Amino acid sequence: DANMAARALMHMGVEQFGTVGIYGFNSPEWFLAEMSTIFCGAKTAGIYPSDRTGNVVFKLKQSKARVVILEDAGKLARLQPQKNDEGEIFNPMDDLPELKYVVMWAEGEKAPEFIESKHGKVPVVNWHDFMKLGEKTDLKDLEERQKKIKPGHCCSLIYTSGTTGRPKAVMLSHDNICFVAAVFIYSIKSSTIGTVACAERIISYLPLSHIAGMVIDIIAPIYLTARTPAWCEVSFARPYDLKKSTIANRLRAVKPTAFLGVPRVWEKIAEKLKAKGAQTKGFAKLLASFAKPRLLAVSKGQTLSGKETNPSGLFIARKVSAKIKAALGLEELKFGMTGAAPIQVHTLEFFGSLGINIKEVYGMSECSATTTISTEETHEWGSCGYPMPGIEFKVLKETKEGEYVEVKRAADLFNATEEEQGELCFRGRHIMMGYLANPDYKGDGGSEWARKKNMSAIDENGWLHSGDKGCMDKNGMIKITGRYKELIIGAGGENVAPVPIEANVKKLQPAVSNIMMVGDKRKFIIALVSLKVKGATGELAGTNKLTPAAQLVEGIETVEEAMESKEYTAKIWEAIQKTNKNHAVVSKGAASIKRFTIIPKDFSVEGGELTSTLKLKRSVVQKMYHDAIEKLYGPSVGRDDFFVKCFETAKKETEKVEPQKEPQPEKPVA
């Protein structure tokens, strides 16, 4: 099928080094579109299912795609005439002169035969007819094309999610993706994956346009099947599974042996389990309370710093664990992993108390997905493990003279000094070819833009500069402590890494869904807080109804009521204050949060605050809540006010809500 589809693409005029766009949710057709493009010596340009018209057009235009293979009428509508933000009609196809064919794999009954543009009519071809077109290209012509393909040729464009601006097209070669798939499969063999002749099963649900989805769901299964005794079966989630939090249904149906969950997915599973646990009573509650500390002790003992333990009653605890795993669909899981964003240690501990060990992996699009990995025998909660075989890794810091020097190894990975931290840098066969340039572009996406981006990403010695801040201990284990672009630099020049502080607040107060610190070039730091609400999935923002975990005060059931309640906001502030006083998290006064507000809705992909892999777009959120941020810093707010209500609610006009003040200690009696 892949060969036939490759021949069809050649018939459509896709040249060697040409581009084919792929736009839709994960499916067998997505796989075939990817592999057939590679087979005919061209490159793919994956488009996120959640991408809006502007990004869809930018990616197709910047990559000069000749064919786009998309899912259905909903995706096709992004290329048809529509209204812009000003209400004016425009045709996206007018901006895509190179696009000559549209292929739909789920065309429905009302698919048009073509779509119009000022450049002419562009045919819309259904999947069946597309495959038939392959018969019009001789197999020998495809084989001749394939003889010209070299390992160093580009086979895929991975567009970064664009948390700070226009997405960049990361060019990956055949060798890049084959190398990383090979060393990844080799690195996890201690979990027994690929070691015996049996089916290994995964669920494809992360966007295949994302590097993690491409490598874990497409390339690694092909490598595993071809080069190990095992074979891999890939099942597809439903497009709505993340939105409706029904991914658990797919887990129970598939029973995966390997599963990659971004932190938000693991957190959502944990929240549901905790909510169910809160309702459990009687003997079942007693049994869970008996099992969890024993399982947690065993899981901690399996970390590098842990001490192996065999607590009494472990046999019973493992029976309880088996039932929980079966309820989750994880009873046959051999390797559970997380990546794409930081995960909180208490989330790892929670799953450890269920007998499920989640391993952290680290990488980025620019290094073909994975650079470091935690394994069964070498993992530490809060660390992203060791560099995979064949990869060089250094922690570098720029000197005043502009040179990069390697910092000394951290004596304590989890309490590294500033001198022991620097930028995580790596090199090897997995490092990208560079960012794609389109000479037709004068700004973002153009030649000069790409030249500057490439120079800042890969230095003259071949080291990829990740932009992540971290450290390495004497054994070579890596820990990420922040991201340089996320660092808050206060008015006094203090550098503050927000992620560990935000994570600690969430750990202390389960009602908090998201918290984002703000304070760049400001005298102090404030925070935007969103609460856990029903229907919030990461994909969707949800409702204004608080979940049971967020109902901290009796009678307070909505976000608006929480904003109005002094008792409620005081409970949020209590968690912030405890974090401020925790010197292991907040090492200097300038890093403490002085004020906060509650925002009306949770962050989501739909709202634009999160990327498709649920990473926070900090710059977007700051623009979105600019007025609220300015109000928090406003001169009318008293020095001791810790909560400022920045959003109107349906409260009577006669009632005025004053900023809440920090309780003052009582004066001693004379």
TrEMBL record:
<dbReference type="GO" id="GO:0005783">
    <property type="term" value="C:endoplasmic reticulum"/>
</dbReference>
<dbReference type="InterPro" id="IPR020845">
    <property type="entry name" value="AMP-binding_CS"/>
</dbReference>
<dbReference type="InterPro" id="IPR042099">
    <property type="entry name" value="ANL_N_sf"/>
</dbReference>
<dbReference type="GO" id="GO:0004467">
    <property type="term" value="F:long-chain fatty acid-CoA ligase activity"/>
</dbReference>
<keyword id="KW-0443">Lipid metabolism</keyword>
<keyword id="KW-0436">Ligase</keyword>
<dbReference type="Pfam" id="PF23562">
    <property type="entry name" value="AMP-binding_C_3"/>
</dbReference>
<feature type="domain" description="AMP-dependent synthetase/ligase">
    <location>
        <begin position="2"/>
        <end position="436"/>
    </location>
</feature>
<dbReference type="GO" id="GO:0016020">
    <property type="term" value="C:membrane"/>
</dbReference>
<dbReference type="InterPro" id="IPR000873">
    <property type="entry name" value="AMP-dep_synth/lig_dom"/>
</dbReference>
<protein>
    <recommendedName>
        <fullName>AMP-dependent synthetase/ligase domain-containing protein</fullName>
    </recommendedName>
</protein>
<keyword id="KW-0276">Fatty acid metabolism</keyword>
<dbReference type="Pfam" id="PF00501">
    <property type="entry name" value="AMP-binding"/>
</dbReference>
